[in-house]
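Lay summary. Proteins are chains of building blocks that fold into shapes, and those shapes determine what they do. In this project we predict the shape from the chain. Here is one chain we studied, written as its sequence of building blocks.
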Amino acid sequence: MTDHQDLRSLINPEKLPQHVAIIMDGNGRWAKKRGHNRIFGHEHGVEAVRQTAEAAAELGIRFITLYAFSTENWNRPKEEVEALMRLLVMTIHGEIKTLNDNNIRLRAIGDLNSMSAEVLAQLNDAIEQTSHNTRMDLVLALSYSGRWEIADALKKIAIQIRNGSVQPDEVDEKLISAHMCAPDIPEPELMIRTSGEYRISNYYLWQLAYSELYFTNILWPDFRKKDLYKAIIDFQKRERRFGQTSEQLTNDIE
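And here is the predicted shape, written in a compact code that computers can read:
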């Protein structure tokens, strides 16, 4: 057996996270180590996306969200942003057949109207062409940040309060969650960040409240199936208590 097959055999299929969120970090550093510009790293990160999505679908994970472009990324040099957008268009267009062959549905969350017309058209076309797939949802967080999402949800609720369809005392966690970008997607049980950084960088701030966090020093372009398996194996060793004690969980099982 290969290394990644050995690791896969250690995963309990009955205890898979339904939703895994990933911060794909380290493209720039990966490229710099090889004497290239940052775009070179982004280009090579595409294979990591492909392998991760394929591995997740094979395991039976239902949702993967990739933090592809944050609202803060708009502040990067114009040349890098434009190159990233071109790469995004080419990648989306080139992966439609692979997504359909693997029965994977593409979705996107974020302030999508801030994207260029060309990118948005390609994105919407790919979303439409994969909308019938049912095996797994691959969600791209584009022009996204957790604070933006919370603010956007609160604006929608404020409008409902103003027009009288919602009363202030009806605002609770359930109502706020219902106004997030994709309320049908369960909150991530596992969040993975590559490149050795130990922060969540304005990602899924509302949804990560009870997520298990996994950090690895691997730079994103080097992330492969075996690395996803390692994260899931680590996740399955953890006790998820949600504020309860270990004894309470044991009693609930019994």
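What the prediction tells us: The mean pLDDT is 92.
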